[in-house]
Specification:
Layout: H1 3-32, H2 39-48, H3 52-55, E1 92-96, E2 104-108, H4 111-120, E3 133-139, H5 144-155, E4 160-165, H6 167-175, H7 179-199, E5 203-208, H8 210-217, E6 229-233, H9 239-249, E7 254-261, E8 265-269, E9 281-283, E10 289-295, E11 298-302, E12 308-316, E13 321-334, E14 344-350
Parallel strand pairs: 3-4, 3-5, 5-6, 6-7
Antiparallel strand pairs: 1-2, 7-8, 8-9, 9-14, 10-11, 10-12, 12-13, 13-14
Helix pairs in contact: 4-5
């Protein structure tokens, strides 16, 4: 990196941090104001005995909250998460997890639309042409993916066709050792996708997951059938899969890997390159969400660049505030990038520190 470029990057990093601090103050004021605030957080502050509106001045000050407990999102009443200012708005609820026990729920109003409109700006026109129709092959049901990908297609001027995958059923099949039934179910999903692709010539873009993408490409050449771009996300997104997708599966079709979840929104990827061994580097949608890589044993401490740790999420929107949530993922801490001048995460994968093996790779 040249001295000029380094100076420019540092200036952008400083400006992004200043904007993050200002947005943090605004979001905290909103969620803890008795007029606009969120019932859960207003009650929390009363019990905690301190006023976040007075004490939170910077993003780093959010450490004062300690760690967000995912159990707080299990069960009801879900309206305790609706800010008073939005009490009369139509409310969505999206679920995450649910393979065991009560799923975690979050409320949503416009966040899923905003997140995917921001993501839309990162998609190249040649791979994801405006006006093209989309096919979404993946989880729908209580997950925000269904509405979010559909909104992305509509926002870009297209119509979205849907094929559902129920990951909870797949997890049950795996736990029962019914691998043949799981394979039959996967083929059932792929058969539906092929029927739609062959019937609708204007489908040019696909959202799907790594395992379904591989299964689809075993049946058909996406390029020959008219697909221009594939937006792909899921727990099986690895550098090895990205290399396989780019060099063997897609035959020149544009490829956009992503890392997202119901609580964060959508992180965008730094362009893949063979020189970097197809490492997948994601940058969160700052200032609406931040990802940090922390020491698993001391999660209040962010690790050094290049070091491995657990992913810690902070969500900062006027709909939803989650400070310091420890994800079920690990990664390496990545330096800021000229297009995204804040920390990123490299090669996200399931957190290895869990003693109990979680069923991963469903997607």
């Amino acid at each position: 990196m040249t001295p000029t470029t380094e100076t420019e990057l540092q200036a952008k990093v400083a400006a992004a941090r200043e904007a993050l601090d200002a947005w943090t103050r605004e979001v905290v004021q909103w969620h803890f104001d008795p007029e606009t605030g969120t019932p859960f957080w207003l009650e929390w502050a009363e019990k905690a005995g301190w006023d976040p509106r007075k004490e939170i001045r910077t993003y780093n000050d959010l450490d004062k909250f300690g760690f967000f407990q995912d159990e707080w999102l299990r069960g009801g009443p879900v309206r305790r998460w609706v800010p008073k200012a939005y009490a009369n708005r139509p409310i969505y609820t999206f679920e995450t997890g649910g393979s065991t026990g009560v799923p975690k729920s979050r409320i949503a109003i416009e966040d899923f639309r905003i997140d995917y409109e921001l993501f839309s700006a990162t998609l190249p026109e040649e791979g994801f042409p405006k006006g093209a129709d989309w096919l979404s092959i993946g989880p729908t049901g209580p997950r925000r993916l269904r509405l979010a990908v559909e909104h992305l297609a509509q926002y870009r001027g297209g119509i979205c066709f849907m094929v559902d995958l129920d990951p909870r059923w797949v997890i049950k099949l795996i736990k029962m050792g019914e691998m043949r039934m799981m394979e039959l179910y996967k083929q059932h999903v792929i058969d539906q996708a092929l029927t739609l692709l062959r019937a609708h010539d204007n489908i040019k873009c696909i959202f799907t997951t790594p395992k379904l993408l591989e299964a689809l490409c075993e049946k058909v050449s996406l390029r020959k059938i008219g697909i221009k771009g594939v937006f792909c996300g899921g727990t099986e997104m690895t550098p090895q899969f990205c290399r396989f997708a780019v060099e063997e599966l897609l035959d020149g079709v544009a490829f956009a890997p992503t890392y997202g979840n119901t609580l964060m929104g959508l992180a965008v990827h730094k362009p893949l390159s063979a020189e970097d061994n197809y490492a997948i580097v994601y940058y969160p949608p700052c200032p609406r969400a931040m990802l940090e890589v922390v020491d698993p044993d001391h999660p209040e401490r962010v690790v050094e660049y290049g070091e491995t740790g657990r992913v810690r999420l902070t969500t900062l929107t006027k709909e939803f505030f989650i400070p310091r949530f420890l994800e079920r993922d690990e990664a390496e801490r990545e330096r800021p990038y000229i297009a995204y001048p804040w920390d990123g995460v490299r090669n996200v994968r399931p957190f290895s520190g869990f003693q109990n093996k979680v069923v991963e790779g469903v997607y």
